Amino acid sequence: MARRFILLGVAVLAAAVLLAWKGDRVVDRILDMRFGGHIPQPRYPFAKNDADANVQDVDYLARLTEEDRSFSDEARVEFARRVSKLKERAAALSRGELLMGISRALAAADNPHTNVERAYWRAYLNSAPVRLEWFEEGLYIVRARETQASLLEYRVAAIDGKSPELVVRDASHYFGGPPEHGRVSSLLVMESPQALHAIYPETPADRLALSLDDGSGIVANVELPAVDPHDAPPVVKPGRLLSPESDFGEKEPWVGILAQRSDLSVSLRKPNQSVYWSKLAADVLYIHLWSIHSDTRGRLDAQLREAFSQASAWRRIIIDLRFDTGGDYPDLYHAIEELPSHLARDGKVIVITDNTTFSAAIITTALVKHFAGERAVIVGERPRDRLVFWAEGDQMQLPNSKIEIPVSTGLHDWAHGCRDPARCYWPNIWYGGIGVGNVEPDVRVGWRFSDYRRGIDTVLARALDTK
User: Fold this and answer.
1) Total domain count for the chain?
2) What is the pTM of this model?
3) What is the pLDDT of residues 329-340, one digit of tens each?
């Protein structure tokens, strides 16, 4: 065992040396060899019909735990049990039912990275002609087909007679992870009559029944016909519906609440860039990290350094990580390491998170807390995952449905520090095995819908007032 750890340690060191010598491509190859999690494609006979195709897909799905390391021993047993039950009825399942059965099996891992990719929920299941988002006061309609535009701004009091909170509880069984992940992911279920019907057989699969509150206490009941997956716009990243500048991919006219506003909040601008920054005052810098990726505008760390360089010393640097689903944290590691040097003597860095903040965006929060120490303040809501999680790895693609499932092979532990080369994702060790305990908000605040509809960002306003 000791020899194994030594060899793994040497491999980590070798990766670091090669990074300096040969560049990122060699390191990526080494990491792929260790963490790729490749599951060989099966050689099934040609599927004669949908029933054969489903059976083959579920049979291949059972191999996930050969490479995916996110399952505990107990979870691995439970996954096998759920897959076995799914296989018994696979021949009779529709594509949507198959997807939900697969999602239910994967939820045994209790690891948000070990989920069916969100895009398949919209591609395989019907959806309503409206889109929903959570706010401090509850669940609201924020986007709709032009023909349903009159429903914008209504609060959803009930879905098919069930409270949104009840649907979150029951839908969370298909996603695993902490409550925040279930809350965000449950919107995929709430917007789909077919998904709701699978959970609650008494509800219709071809229409969505909503009880809507206009704010005056009067509740109106409406029924919305389902939209076929081929006609529905694709799913967008969590929270991105709030920005009218997002790319919605809609085939026909849809409208949103803020579409006509000329004074769009700084926090909703340029969502298709990795970074957007703006000077809010001579000594206040706002940075929205929409994605932890280098992009066509340059390396991410270089873009951040350009923003930092706009003043000699900042009294406040606000880093907004809402609606950021992650990426590659090494792309910004060194810029965050340097961040405290750009603060004035009494300066602070304010990090904004919410329930959509995920993966490398959570890591970025941890890095800011580590490097800025007591000068860092976290404002907003808890992020969508824990600080200890499994990620990395390749995609497992089922042979017939083509559903893709991430294979989680590398451990991240940003609570205690990840230093075990047998389990930890090696770059985490190379970057010092950082552990910060938690990233709980120091100031808890959510975006109020009453502010959003007027173009005001409740959370950003609170961040700017933070002492």
Assistant:
1) 2
2) 0.93
3) 999 999 999 999
